[in-house]
Write a structure and sequence with these properties.
The chain is of the alpha+beta class and 423 residues long. It is built from 10 helices and 15 strands. The longest helix is centred in the first third of the chain and has 36 residues.
Length: 423
């Protein structure tokens, strides 16, 4: 009798587990469907759908690959979530799992690469060990669009059959959301790589306590782009900006600028790197209070070999009539524009901005962002740290940081103007 009672309890528990698992499964699909159905644009549907898939499936990396049929037919990353930069990656139809799935329209499931490293066909995931992977077709009812790839689980476990089933259904739902007259946006064409970061970590030690701020960042910065680093306080975005700007060393990893590795550079080498190549825009302006706007610029111009004309730069930022004013005689917005001009007068290859509008009101922020918009149009590379998601609509690319790692990369194929922003 005791054994029978135990068997009955066990069967009831198994049924309860199946019911709860099925409920979670259906709830997940329902939430993804809701995200897609409520999206107002195709990009919102695809991005929102993939975010929901990642959130509910627990995968570490997910990529929508699309077939660029207007050009060479290569499969290129349209949108992805994960700790890697896939901007320049591509697959030919039939090449690797991504290309095979697009060509055959048959999903592939690789649940354990740990024992079969020779089968690994995802070498594009530089700096990221692939343990398990699922790749599914991405096809609307009108045409084959590409593939959707899922890599690893963020909890360290392997992807399961049940996980893969949900991924396939969700991918189908995302594709169904595409209307007949809709088309994926034109691909973004980045310039040459200016900076490359590989497996960057940064740790700070206070007594016996070690704080890991950056936990393996892999990122390229491209010539002429506006790149936004977005995230909550403590996510590592400002620390990453300091490393990019040569103001800090990584604990490990490599940082290349135009092919030269600065990750182990001396202080003198970093000083020369900053002086020659980098312009800085700070939240707190950091102007010399006893110098006029023009004198602040000329002081910086004397430190570099090929400065721009200080008066010409003040005209660019709309402050020709304030060139003889001291910082105390200018508003916050005007001081920040002087700060932008100070960065420009160095004629730098890259401009770094750390929360440049955080201390300004909305109207003044828009004025400053309009100036920065013109700076990017002139060909400068701009990397901006911000916690304001609305500002990132101006960027060519947005890297969302979370917990010291890159979490999500978004390409804005239709960047907004500063005057379009509202918060």
């Amino acid at each position: 009798m005791v054994r029978a009672a135990f068997q009955g309890w066990k069967l009831k528990r198994e049924r309860s587990y199946v019911d709860s698992s099925l409920f979670a499964y259906l709830k997940t699909i329902g939430e993804v469907q809701s995200v897609i159905a409520n999206a107002t644009t195709l990009d919102e549907a695809l991005q929102g759908g993939l975010r929901a898939i990642v959130e509910h499936s627990g995968v570490e990396c997910a990529v929508i690959w699309y077939a660029d049929k207007k050009n060479d037919g290569m499969l290129r990353p349209y949108y992805w979530i994960g700790p890697i930069d896939l901007t320049r990656c591509s697959h030919a139809p039939g090449e690797g799992a991504v290309g095979r799935v697009f060509q055959t329209q048959v999903a592939e499931r690789w649940f354990d690469f740990r024992e079969k490293r020779d089968l690994q066909t995802v070498s594009d995931f530089e700096g990221m060990q692939v343990d398990s992977m699922v790749c599914v077709p991405f096809s609307s009812k009108f045409e084959d669009l590409g593939s959707i790839q899922f890599v690893n689980r963020s909890d360290g476990a392997l992807i399961t059959d049940e996980d893969a089933d949900v991924m396939e259904i969700m991918a189908m739902m995302a594709a169904i959301s595409i209307e007949e007259n809709e088309a994926l946006a034109e691909p973004w064409e980045p310039g040459e790589v200016v900076m490359s970061l590989r497996n960057i970590t940064r740790e700070f030690q206070n007594g016996d306590v070690v704080t890991k701020v950056l936990k393996g960042v892999n990122l390229d910065v491209y010539e002429g782009e506006f790149l936004a680093l977005l995230g909550e306080s403590g996510c590592g975005k400002s620390t990453l900006l300091n490393i990019i700007g040569g103001m800090d060393h990584p604990t490990s990893g490599s940082f290349f600028y135009q092919g030269q590795d600065y990750s182990q550079a001396t202080q003198n080498e970093l000083t020369e790197f900053r002086r020659t190549n980098i312009g800085f825009i700070f939240q707190s302006y950091n102007l010399m209070p006893n110098l006029t706007a023009l004198q602040n610029l000329k002081l910086i111009g004397e430190l570099v070999d090929n400065p721009r004309d200080a008066e010409e730069v003040l005209e660019i930022v709309g402050l020709s009539d304030r060139k003889r004013n001291y910082p105390s005689q200018m508003s916050g917005g005007q001081q920040q524009r002087v700060s932008i001009a100070r960065a420009l007068v160095k004629n730098p290859k890259v401009i770094l901005a750390d929360e440049p509008t955080a201390a300004l009101d909305y109207a003044t922020s828009i004025e400053v962002l309009q100036v920065m918009e013109e700076v990017v149009k002139s060909g400068s590379t701009l990397v901006m740290v911000t916690h304001n998601e609305e500002i990132t609509r101006m960027a060519d690319r947005v890297v969302r940081m979370r917990g010291g790692r890159m979490h999500e990369v978004t390409v804005n194929r239709h960047p907004a103007h500063a005057t379009d922003l509202v918060w």
